[in-house]
């Protein structure tokens, strides 16, 4: 059996990054349900994120989305984050909300539009310099809706050219994380639709380019843990955008739709030596109908629970069963870990960290919700759905 104190130490050291956009109002294409007390600017998003960290102890950084989190002075924003006991994390680019990007951004047939997109990505690296962020997270809405609309191969060439320009601008210790997504908003062909395409581009770019796996960006039934195992084996897994899906890119709370899948993913992370700072655990979610801060706390706890179960897998017993071809025993070893109630263990970890064992109850008692409802009027939208 794995050593309990090592498991506890690993859990206490985990870092889960929360996304600034999860704190703002969001919705579907049909309706944004505004909630009371939501942040009106990036500063207030950070104040909320600091609450999540204060009660969980494992959410020390916040991802920004540019231009949703545009401010005059990013150094000042980083200093404000530090005052709140947190730090700024990945910088997410946005080349999908401008009329110019109707036919794509970095893959657009017009060189002037491509230049504009690349300039935005370069600006994101400038912001990373100011915030001290390590990761630039790139997701492209680029693609086509109709066969023949554009040349699939030429679009890949344009993508490679644009990425290379941005890659060349990265400083020491900075990384580019390339995110793939099966479809949407393009429906016929997406320019970075899968891990293979992302991997091929990252491989050509070099060591600082890594693939990011958004758990909501796959076809139903995809074996995501296999992708994780493969990318880790190739040293190309940069991190995760965690969320849950039932149908498409639902952005529901991670671990809500399929906690077993999350466990299987975390097991491959642990098994593949990916439980290090090199693999960023980020949330990428929206909370359309549920209270945002408790939902984010719940999501962090769901990742912790899956991680705890993954760390509890008796790997010696598992490999003995695998070597001897004992199918049932191998499966039983894995399921034993999955079926363990890890909530008491995590409660202990939290107590040892000086935290309340029940972060959601502690948050509710803190009065933060009442305070922000009173103080903040006219909260900001997360960025889309307007
Ligand atoms: C795209 C995506 C990407 C964006 C975020 C808001 O669907 O997953 O990571 O930056 O949503
Ligand atoms: Mn994402
Ligand atoms: Mn997404």
Automatic annotation (TrEMBL):
Which organism was this protein described from?
Answer: Streptomyces longisporus
> What Gene Ontology molecular function terms does this protein carry?
isomerase activity
**Lineage, please?**
Bacteria, Bacillati, Actinomycetota, Actinomycetes, Kitasatosporales
Q: Which NCBIfam families does the entry mention?
A: RhaI_grampos
Q: Does the keyword Metal-binding apply?
A: yes
Q: What is this protein called?
A: L-rhamnose isomerase
Magnesium recorded as keyword = no
Which keywords has UniProt assigned to this entry?
Cytoplasm, Isomerase, Manganese, Metal-binding, Rhamnose metabolism
Q: Which InterPro entries match?
A: L-rhamnose_isomerase, Rhamnose_iso-rel, Rhamnose_isomerase, Xyl_isomerase-like_sf
Report the superkingdom from the record.
Bacteria
Provide an example Pfam family for this protein: RhaA
């Amino acid at each position: 059996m794995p050593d309990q104190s090592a498991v506890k130490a690993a859990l206490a050291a985990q870092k889960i990054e929360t996304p600034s956009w999860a704190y703002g109002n969001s919705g579907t294409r049909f309706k944004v349900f505004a909630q009371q007390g939501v942040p009106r600017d990036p500063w207030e998003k950070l104040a909320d994120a600091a609450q999540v960290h204060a009660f969980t102890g494992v959410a020390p950084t916040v991802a920004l989305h540019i231009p949703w989190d545009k401010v005059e002075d990013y150094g000042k924003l980083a200093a404000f984050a530090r005052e709140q006991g947190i730090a700024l994390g990945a910088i997410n680019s946005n080349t999908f909300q401008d009329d110019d990007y109707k036919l794509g951004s970095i893959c657009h047939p017009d060189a002037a539009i491509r230049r504009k997109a690349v300039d935005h990505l370069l600006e994101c690296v400038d912001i990373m310099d100011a915030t001290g962020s390590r990761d630039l997270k790139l997701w492209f809405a680029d693609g086509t809706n109709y066969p023949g609309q554009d040349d699939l191969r030429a679009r890949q060439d344009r993508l490679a050219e644009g990425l290379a320009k941005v890659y060349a601008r990265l400083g020491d210790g900075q990384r580019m994380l390339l995110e793939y997504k099966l479809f949407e908003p393009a429906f016929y062909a997406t320019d970075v639709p899968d891990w293979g395409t992302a991997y091929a581009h990252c491989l050509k770019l070099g060591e600082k380019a890594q693939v990011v796996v958004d758990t909501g960006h796959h076809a139903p039934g995809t074996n995501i843990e296999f992708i994780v195992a493969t990318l880790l084996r190739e040293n190309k897994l940069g991190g995760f955008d965690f969320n849950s899906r039932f149908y498409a890119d639902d952005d529901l709370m991670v671990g809500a739709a399929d906690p077993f899948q999350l466990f299987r993913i975390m097991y491959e992370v642990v098994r593949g030596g990916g439980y290090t700072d090199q693999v960023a655990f980020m949330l990428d979610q929206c909370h359309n109908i549920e209270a945002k801060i408790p939902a984010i706390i719940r999501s962090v706890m769901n990742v912790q629970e899956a991680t705890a179960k993954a760390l509890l897998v008796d790997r010696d017993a598992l490999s003995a069963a695998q070597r001897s071809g004992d199918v049932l025993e191998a499966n039983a070893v894995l399921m034993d870990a999955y079926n363990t109630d890890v909530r008491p263990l995590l409660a202990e970890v939290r107590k040892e960290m000086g935290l309340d064992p029940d972060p959601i109850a502690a948050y509710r008692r803190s009065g933060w919700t009442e305070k922000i409802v009173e103080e903040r009027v006219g909260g900001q939208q997360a960025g889309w759905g307007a």
